[in-house]
């Protein structure tokens, strides 16, 4: 029996250019659920993770406008994880007879992680530079520019993104998989917590979803990790005349190439980490072509380096 971890990127839930509208999001999630169930064998063990960047950013923006003490980011992480997990579970349940469970997932991070001193993870909608500056002044946020369509510059809030160290609910996920349940978990990379003695304490951060998905797949001894986005493959030389999709490559070869930290970089690093740590393969590809990705006809497949 094959164990597959499928990670849905934020762009698979809200496509580029989509307004942050609940009806559109629900339709995209329904499409994602159907695509996954159509592509993955019905008897396989299946774990689904997902992004939450647009959603958690909107919750933070709405919360900041209440004029009261805002909820900390870890609480908003949990809120967005529950919302998206509920919608995914509802649409998965409609399509098949197996039980589906959404697990609110805590992820332990290191309080001394260098990411806390240099926030880089974009969340929420895009703004003009003037809008971003006003929001940063009003709420004490860090903001930064990012590339947008047409080569223009858009601005977003950025927060710390520490590396995941341990998945608190791992045993529960294992038990559910063993009982034949489809599990939705680690949404948005999980809720970041630190360990203080026997206590778990939430921290202001958003963990990278792909990094947590790779750790989860490794800990579950998964047969494959599939990272889905809205492009068909990793592209070498993106934005140049020599741009070309990468079909299949070893982890060491792919790891030598440079990919933007704000787009494909985290997916490439996560996929290579899973491959290096397990000796198994990972794929990066489009949700719309998931069946072809799993069959090796689409996407970028990362294989173990011979002799490693």
Tell me the layout of helices and strands.
Elements lengths: L2 E6 L1 H4 L8 H18 L5 E6 L2 H12 L8 H23 L4 E4 L2 E3 L12 E7 L1 H11 L2 E6 L5 E7 L6 E2 L2 H9 L3 E4 L5 E6 L2 E4 L6 H11 L4 E6 L5 E2 L7 E2 L2 E3 H5 L9 H14 L3 E5 L3 H5 L5 E4 L5
Helix pairs in contact: 2-4, 3-4, 7-9
* CATH class value of the domain at 3-108 and 162-222: Alpha Beta
Structural class: alpha/beta
Strand order of the largest sheet: 3-9-2-1-12-16-17-15
CATH architecture annotation name of the domain at 3-108 and 162-222: 3-Layer(aba) Sandwich
State mean pLDDT (0 to 100 scale).
Answer: 89
In CATH terms, what is the fold-level topology of the domain at 3-108 and 162-222?
Carbamate kinase
At the fourth level of CATH, the homologous superfamily of the domain at 3-108 and 162-222 is Acetylglutamate kinase-like
Question: How many H/I helical runs?
Answer: 10
Rg, Cα atoms, Å: 19 Å
The major pleated sheet works out as:
8 strands, mixed
Number-wise, the strands total 17
In what range is the share of β-strand residues? 25-35%
Shape field: globular
Percent range of helical residues = 25-40%
SSE series: EHHEHHEEEHEEEHEEEHEEEEHHEHE
The N- to C-terminal Cα distance equals 26 Å
Low-confidence segments, given as residue ranges, are: none
Which features would summarize this protein structure in a list?
308 residues, alpha/beta, Carbamate kinase, 8-stranded mixed β-sheet, 10 helices, 25% strand
